[in-house]
Amino acid sequence: MPYVKRDEQGRITAVNLEPGEGLAEVPPGSPELLEFMRKLELEQSSLEQSDMRLVRVLEDLIDLLIARDVIRFTDLPLPAQEKLMERRTMRQSLGALDLLGGANETI
User: Fold this and answer.
1) Edge-first strand listing for the sheet containing 3-6
2) Which of 3, 37, 48, 57 has its CA 20 to 30 A from that of 29?
3) Residue 24: helix, strand or coil by DSSP?
4) Distance between CA 107 and CA 100 in Å, rounded?
5) Does the model's pTM come out above 0.90?
6) Nearest of 88, 22, 27 to residue 55 by alpha carbon
7) Does the structure show a pLDDT above 90 at 79?
């Protein structure tokens, strides 16, 4: 059974699988619990999407710094070089298959 912590208005603010001080047991299929979990998933999904957009900005920034001779690709730590090359290869592959679909997406 899940256990929940509630705020002053009685809304769920945390869920735990173990009983504890200040936690109340709720049925697993509780609509209130399911709604809380759905909101957490939406927030996580939004954060992941934002992270992916930021990753692309950072990749483009690194490419720009390299193109302007501010840094060299080999100045980056080897794990960073490997990750960048892996992503570059994946983007080129997807672009060749035309899976990106974005006209303004650069590879």
Assistant:
1) 12-16, 3-6, 24-25
2) 48
3) strand
4) 10
5) no
6) 88
7) yes
Q: Hey, where are the domains in the chain?
A: 3-71
pLDDT tens digits, one per residue of 13-64 = 999 999 999 999 999 889 999 999 999 898 889 989 999 899 989 999 999 9
Rounded distance, CA 34 to CA 36, Å?
Answer: 5
- The DSSP call for residue 100 is S
CA 40 to each of CA 1, 14, 33, 80: distance values in angstroms, whole numbers, following the listed order: 19, 10, 11, 31
Our CA dihedral for 12, 15, 21, 22, rounded to 10 degrees, sits at 0
Instruction: Tell me how crowded residue 73 is: count the other CB atoms within 10 A of its CB.
Output: 13
pLDDT of residue 98: 55
User: What is the C-alpha separation between 72 and 65, in angstroms, rounded?
Assistant: 8
